[in-house]
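Pipeline run #58 for the internal structure catalog. This entry was flagged by the ingest filter as a single-chain record with no existing model, so it goes straight to prediction. Upstream metadata was stripped on purpose; only the residue string is passed forward. Reviewer on rotation: M.T. Logging verbosity set to normal.
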Amino acid sequence: MKKILFFDTSIGTLNIGDEIINDSIQKISEEMFSDDYIMRLPSRTGILNKFQLFYNKSFRQNFCEADLKFVCGTNLLYKNMLRPMPNWNINLFNTKVSEQSILFGVGSGNNSKEITKYTQMLYKRVLSRDYVHSVRDQATKNMLDSIGVQSVVTGCPTLWNLDEYKCSKIPQEKSENVLFTLTHYTTFRNYDEDKKMIQILKKLYRKVYFWPQSLEDLNYLEELDESTDVNIISPNLKSFDNFLTNNDTDYVGTRLHGGIYALQHGRRSIILAIDNRAREIKNNNNIPCIERDDTSSSLEKMIKAKWDTRILIEDDKIERWKQQFTK
């Protein structure tokens, strides 16, 4: 029996999208490590302080000496890790538990032109050199290539089970109902296009639903003054799951993993790209996606059109990555 440690990115976040990622990773890992002991620690918050590491050696060793350590998805890597609130809360003084970590569908953000010397030192200290890492997109692979860390583009783990058969069951034409999402972050707001999206949905669908994937998304909807005739789904993953399971609906919105979760439930989805994540995943995996800032000119046409959902999954790369851990 092996001890397997997962650094869970869904703890200490205000974005339920991280729960969606970790839900998929948990299902995949249960198949990969069905006979092993699974441990979890948060990636975003401090893990163990120096006193705790010193005080209980046997407790610490279970984590530090785990047979395999995986970091679970999301935008975790940055070119400059001297950030006030990193998604992977590591620095040169607290890496003991994180050493020899393996990336599991991890993506990256771009906050610097080049990887800083400090960040290179940090990654070389914590990232395993014994295994090939699984990364979400080509941009993340390029970053790791530049510092000599081997990786393979597997796509986001939320997509791994969206095979040709499952995609064939997703409707080609619009439903009578639609669920939409918004993104409240200041840098990603576009009042005109977000407002236009909701107006288009109200015009084309019989019933319109809204799911707040993050804490302030509902406030943003109210700021747009478009909440009239919009039905609110409770802001938790169970409610979202129940709604998608029991209702014939389309999905339209800026929340990337809200859209992928809808695809997992066999729902026709249009993801509106607002950042590099959706664009990179579209390039690698062909998710149904248009630019949010083109909503006025493109969204209505896409909703009315008939089209197939064809997610591209590189099964051979995923399987080769998994096979490393069966030896």
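catalog note: Residues 17-32 form the longest helix (16 residues).
catalog note: The two ends are 13 Å apart (CA to CA).
status: ready for reviewer M.T.
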